[in-house]
Amino acid sequence: MTELITAYPWFAERNKHLAELHRQKRLPHALLIHGMQGIGKALFAKSFAQMLLCQQPESGKACGVCKSCELNAAGSHPDLFILQPEEAGKQLKVDQVRALGEFIYSTAQQGGYRVVVIDPADSMNIASANALLKMLEEPGSDTLLLLVTSKMGQVLPTIKSRCQHIECVTPDTEVAISWLMSEGDLDEERARGVLTINRGAPKEALAYLNNNLGEDRAQLIRGLADILKQRRSPLEVAQAWQKLDLELLLGWLYSLLTDIARGALCENDDSVRHEDARNMLNAVAKKLTPLESLN
Ligand SMILES: [Zn+2]
């Protein structure tokens, strides 16, 4: 038997807000939970769903002992519907969305709420989004749809306009560091470094550690240093990088560039955040000409 889902500590405020809306019977039919990748939005949505289904929630949390909580812990609550692509990274099929319709317009089996979690909401094409639209407009009473996305720009406007938006910001750095220290068994300095590499997203930082991405990261930094010192040509370095995860690499390059821009605009060396490439980034930043002096 699995356990109930617990949201990360940095979602406490969001959870309190939604639980209060629920207590006042003011919850809308659909919430669009959005924010950056890797902070645990889907877990938050699922833990809130479990609280809504719980027969005796306490302080905005599921009790863990009632019949509903037992069903949720076993992953078999009949009034919870998790809609996600059949394969990670693929689109939600229109047939999957239609199957959701049967769930939404049936009666809650446990007599309470019916909750749907759609993760990610940006994985719908026009046909599946259209199939969902009517359900978003008239989902029936005591039904809540929780849509989750890290890519707001890819959620269709017609979907966005029918949901109340819940923005999830990047967790406070110190909170994230102490969480990462305990989950990843790290010291503070290392936790801070790994968090910076992962744009402040703690869950992503933990995945970075668990998937041993440190060696890929080191390969990126080594490659850049080799190009700068003319030890290898950009082409050779690019060929070596081909084996790495391209999306990940581009994300890292983007955030290194941000650091260089910051270093070029600020006088002090502390403006660079990536410790693992500090000297190189500062050296490049010093060679740059600020744009205004070009005019
Ligand atoms: Zn319960």
- N- to C-terminal distance: 67 Å
Mean pLDDT: 92
Computed structural class = alpha/beta
Order of helices and strands: HEHHEHEHEHEHHHHHHH
- The shape is elongated
Bound compounds: zinc ion
* Proportion in helices: 40-55%
CATH class of the largest domain: Alpha Beta
Describe the largest sheet.
5 strands, parallel
Whole-number total of structural domains: 2
Strand order of the largest sheet: 2-3-4-1-5
Looking at the structure, the CATH topology of the largest domain is: Rossmann fold
CATH architecture of the largest domain: 3-Layer(aba) Sandwich
**CATH superfamily membership of the largest domain, which one?**
P-loop containing nucleotide triphosphate hydrolases
Task: Please work out how many helical segments DSSP would assign.
Answer: 13
Total number of strands: 5
Which residues sit in consecutive blocks of at least 5 with pLDDT less than 50? none
Which keywords apply here?
single chain, 295 residues, alpha/beta, Rossmann fold, five-stranded parallel sheet, 13 helices, elongated, binds zinc ion, DNA_Rep/Repair_Clamp_Loader, DNA_pol_III_delta_C, DNA-directed DNA polymerase, DNA_pol_HolB
Folded structure, characterized:
The chain is an alpha/beta fold and 295 residues long. It has 2 domains: 9-168, Rossmann fold; 173-294, no CATH class. Helices cover 48% and strands 9% of the residues. The protein is built from 13 helices and 5 strands. A 5-stranded parallel beta sheet has the order 2-3-4-1-5, sandwiched between helices. Helix 4 (94-104) packs parallel to helix 5, helix 7 (173-184) runs parallel beside helix 9 and helix 8 packs across helix 9 (202-210). It is elongated. It starts with 11 loop residues before the first helix and ends in an 8-residue tail after the last helix. 32% of the residues are buried. The model has no long low-confidence stretch (mean pLDDT 92). Bound molecules: zinc ion. Its EC number is 2.7.7.7.
